Amino acid sequence: MGDVLIMNEIDATANRLGIDLLQVDLDSIQLPPGEDLGIISDDEDVYEDDDQEVESGFGNIIVVDNLPVVPKEKFEKLEGVIKEDGLWMPVDPETQKSLGYCFIEYNTPQEAELAKEKTNGYKLDRAHIFAVNMFDDFDKFMKVPDEWAPPEHKPYTPGENLQKWLTDEKARDQFVIRSGTDTEVLWNDARHLKPEPVYKRSYWTESFVQWSPLGTYLATVHRQGAAVWGGANTFNRLMRYAHPQVKLIDFSPGEKYLVTYSSHEPSNPRDANRVVINIFDVRTGKVMRDFKGSADEFAVGGTGGVAGVSWPVFRWGGGKDKYFAKLGKNMISVYETESFTLIDKKSLKVENVMDFSWSPTDPIISLFVPELGGGNQPARVSLVQIPSKEELRQKNLFSVSDCKMYWQSSGDYLAVKVDRYTKTKKSTYTGFELFRIKERDIPIEVLELDNKNDKIIAFAWEPKGHRFAVIHGDSPRPDISFYSMRTAQHAGRVSKLTTLKGKQANALFWSPSGRFIVLAGLKGFNGQLEFYNVDELETMATAEHFMATDVEWDPTGRYVATAVTSVHEMENGFNIWSFNGKLLYRTLKDHFFQFLWRPRPPSFLTPEKEEEIAKNLKKYSKKYEAEDQDVSMQLSEQEREKRRSLKNEWEKKISEWKRLHEEEKMERQMLRDGEASDEEEEYEAKEVEVEEVLDVTEEVEE
Amino acid sequence: MFQANSMTLITGSADQTAKLWNVETGAQLFTFNFDSPARSVDFAVGDKLAVITTDPFMELNSAIHVKRIARDPADQGGESVLILKGPQGRINRAVWGPLNRTIISAGEDAIVRIWDTETGKLLKESDKETGHKKTITSLAKAADGSHFLTGSLDKSAKLWDARTLELIKTYVTERPVNAVTMSPLLDHVVLGGGQDASAVTTTDHRAGKFEAKFFDKILQEEIGGVKGHFGPINALAFNPDGKSFSSGGEDGYVRLHHFDPDYFNIKI
């Protein structure tokens, strides 16, 4: 907590001086050389852990053993091989020959380490292979006792229950918000129509925060690396991951691993940036594997993101964090997490591969190869099984200009949006190839929109469901169509459910449990929201959150959060709505940067249990309805109390003022020269008739 | 600012003068000269004194001037009875406290100050923690002078006790506040404002979005708003009978609003 206190002081000082801390460029501050003003740098913390052995003063000396024993005449020749200043080769005083080893001193321990790494095992000739060790290591090895003693048994201290938030009695969900310099985690208390704070901290992160995919950790990003926080009732720092100048992070879906990315300016400005990617084990903080290279190696295919790289570079798949894969030039490199090496020690070679995508549930990769040779080699989409690398299904596509793949959340379906050139090659029209993954032989169906020339603005599968929604059209008010992959009438064929015409929408947000969807008009539409029930095919509510930039369902599908971030200068903050479009409460926060619901792990209930609960919903809901009633009565009672007390306070003030006013009456009259015009509250409007001479004319009679 | 009997008007101007006018005839009665633009003016109880503030200009700091107002314009002189200096930045409003014993000033440095008129000493200052965080743009006195309302660019308005400078109420809104006024009839407070034209980057497609927002004075809750202006509102004033009010805005329009009978029956 020491950090937080100091920041408060700094804030107070800045306020007093009228300085806006957010405007100050901390990086431009230069301390006088050698001065650190007594402030312990955060960086030192990380380094201290590594350099614990350097205290001896001999840390920069290495011992090179297994040198040939040579007489004095050959010294120079031998020294020529190991040429370095600070070399001392002891000589046997009796034989005047070298003893077969020497000591070399370097300027810094780091240089000595480097030299040791590079020269240990160097073959001078067949009989002499250098054995190089740090001088200090000898000390360490000498200290090893001759007898093995079993390691000390540390008593088991159970860690905190990191999943405690899921056991909230009121079944609320948490979310994190960032505004100004504060990061806060709050409960969404919909019954009380306001958020309840969990934890708040200023300067918790240096750039952004991110939840882990199952909600166990909150990750923060700093100049020296990333950190994760969590705990039972509050947020403690659980682990740190050193990665200087880290810019982006990504968790594996099972939260086992954390991938961090940084991009560095090259020494030669004409080269591409240097990219460093580390993969850490989340719980131990150990680096499992790192990847270093030029940005060119990592920015293949796809659209450029930060510094030309599309993030995440490594995409996880196969369930249980088993595999991760990267798109390369003419190949897909698939690694497995047992050994963090390539499967079969080599990448999957696919000539000209442009994009790939994992199934969310199975170890299957879908990939897309564009058209080649001016139409000689058609484009194709393939499904490849991992780790066998066997091609499960393939389809050739002709006249393709572009392609995008969308997996349904349970891995049941894959939709491939294909843009094709018309015969004249002047424009494109779009169609969908729909793969039914779980059916035998993976049948593919082709779907074209009613109006082939409509541009596709958005596409989204219903989570855990069989339907999808498409926004299409060119006009300022596009259409939205809903399709189902299996209707009662056509079990094996896709069919259209309905088309909504002329909607002000450009983004689709399905509820995570399906059935409901928010059709949102962001950006140009300035925050139009339509809450739509896809089961009944009817609108539940239309609303507006002026200038909304983000829409996010809570992980249970009960609530929707819409937010206005600092992209806009005014009206920053967020709204919480019920799933059917009722506004529950809104919170204004200036300089609003992020709103993220805390994800939940998948339910432990079996499908049978879920069905049973759905059947007996009425029984369960009675209990909760009663609770709701209690709370709302309590609320209104509280409201009334509050109002009563405010009014009472005010009455007291008014009577106090009246009393003073009365006392001062005499004096006031005197100020007005005796005029008792105290009743200024009731002013008098007097109508005064004024005669004004407009014009004088003289008429002279002739 | 009008005198209590509405016969004389005093105005302050950027031409570095303040003038007295005869309301009936429109004739200029007297001109006070200053070395910098005059901004805020107010008549004291009894109309024998007036307070005029001047802006900081070149090397001059802002100042508060107290002038004697003669009954007969012919006797009017230009000397200051008292000059108060001190606040940093522009003083946007200065008004007389009860019985003319004090002068209340507020401005760019977001602090409300109470000065003693006799000695010229600073008696009280508003607390930095609870007070406004940005420039105070406007100030409106209650009819009996017991409390006053300040509006600020920090998107809030605050109600203070005029004698003790105790902070009584705070009203929070979404836009910087440029003008405030209190209803003489009901317990309503009205705030007007909007983002400065120079800071707006997105054109608001909802023309007339700038609202005069009505708050319940006691409960601090928003009751509603009156739309119509399509630029920030810079001035608000209630008709003394409380049945209508006027608003003036950046868009160059002055709007007069008359209340429906329903307005007087509003209950939260």
Q: What does this protein look like?
A:
- By secondary structure, chain A is of the alpha+beta class.
- In chain A, the strands form eleven sheets. In chain A, strands 18, 19, 20, 21 and 22 form a five-stranded antiparallel β-sheet that branches.
- In chain A, a hairpin with a 4-residue loop joins β41 and β42 (583-588).
- Chain A is extended and about 150 Å long.
- The termini of chain A are far apart.
- Chain B is 0% helix and 49% strand.
- With 268 residues, chain B is an all-beta fold.
- Chains A and B meet through α8 and α9 of A and loops of B.
- Chain A: Belongs to the eIF-3 subunit B family.
- Chain A: Its main location: cytoplasm.
Quick structural overview:
The complex is a heterodimer of chains A (702) and B (268). Chain A is of the alpha+beta class and 702 residues long.
